[in-house]
Amino acid sequence: MKLQGIVLILLLLIGRILFKISVSKFRNLEKIKLLRMDTSKEVKKEDLSIKVPNNSPLEEGNSNIKDVDLIESNTPSIENEELLEPETIPQESSKCEEIIRFAGNYKLKIRSFRIPKDGFTEDECEDNSAISSESSETVRIAVSDGATEGIFSSIWSELLVNKYVEAGSQIFVPSQLNFVHDEFVLKAFQNISNMPETRHWFMYEKLDRGTHATMATVEFSNSNTIQISTIGDSCIFWYNQNEIGMLPELSSNDFASFPNTICHSPNTWQNIDNKLVKKEILIDNFFQISLCTDALACWLVKRLKEQNELLNWSKIFEISCLSSFKEFIQELRARKEIRNDDVTLVLIDVLPLNV
Hints:
By secondary structure, the protein is α+β, with helices and mostly antiparallel strands. It has 2 domains: 2-73, no CATH class; 99-352, 4-Layer Sandwich (Phosphatase 2c, domain 1). Helices cover 34% and strands 24% of the residues. It contains 8 helices and 14 strands. It has helices spanning 2-37, 153-167, 174-193, 197-208, 272-275, 294-306, 311-317, 322-334; strands at residues 49-51, 67-69, 99-103, 106-115, 127-131, 139-146, 212-220, 225-231, 235-240, 243-247, 262-263, 277-282, 287-292, 343-352. It has a 6-stranded antiparallel beta sheet with strand order 3-4-14-13-9-10, with helices on one face. Strands 5, 6, 7, 8, 11 and 12 form a 6-stranded antiparallel beta sheet that branches. Strand 5 and strand 6 (139-146) form a beta hairpin. Helix 2 packs antiparallel against helix 3 (174-193) and helix 3 runs antiparallel to helix 4 (197-208). The protein starts with a helix and ends with a strand.
């Protein structure tokens, strides 16, 4: 009888311990659900205290989470939350999105737009552009089109434009380009490491084949000239003294072939000077210049250079906001006048300060 009593007491103690553990786990899960219930609502720092192990992400159901303390707040529940008024819902900007820079005796009004291929998201767009900071003495603008055939092309094109606005034409020197290469390889390896292990070998093999991008750049300094350069079929157009200029000089048929590119692989850099097309332009009053990637560049070549329809120049410079740019490109796609590709356009009005 004494032994049976001891066993009964032990069973009761074990049952009580298991019950407490179950209740504790249930409460922790409920608190985590509360934290994740409405990600669109800001949670004030003073309303929330979370304790997690070092280097452990907070994930629902994570067994490594030791304790989650949710301090009660006065935030109403989702069931009682009123719907937002229509005017409070974010809308795509229709305002003029201009960046102002100054170079010598000129004021630069810059607008930059980008749209991905139909059926793709903004994050999947492989075009990129960059403009130097306000503090820079030299104003630099660049666009780059990452080749779809490569891997992580968007990362490569973004690094190229960012490095150009920082270092200028020095980026085309292999010793400087090597810094961009190293950063790209690091980012590429980080992306691959986050993929399932079964894909690693394939991704590394694809990376070895090379990632490519075309590029177009413009540099304004204190003089009345502009330095422009291109590699491949990202193009620069300018309007000066009632004439349209272009770099590189291409026909619409040239866009069907595989263009020159900057490859991330160092063993391709020995002939980079042969790929680079450069020109110096004299600025006239009320000078206009644009940079764009190949899909739109091909359309502009047809309209401006081959059909001499100069009104189309005014049409693109009337684009003032992202919504009007998207509408313009979608109309061209609907009429099959432009192929379904990522499109980037940078418009620059160069205005003399003394007028």
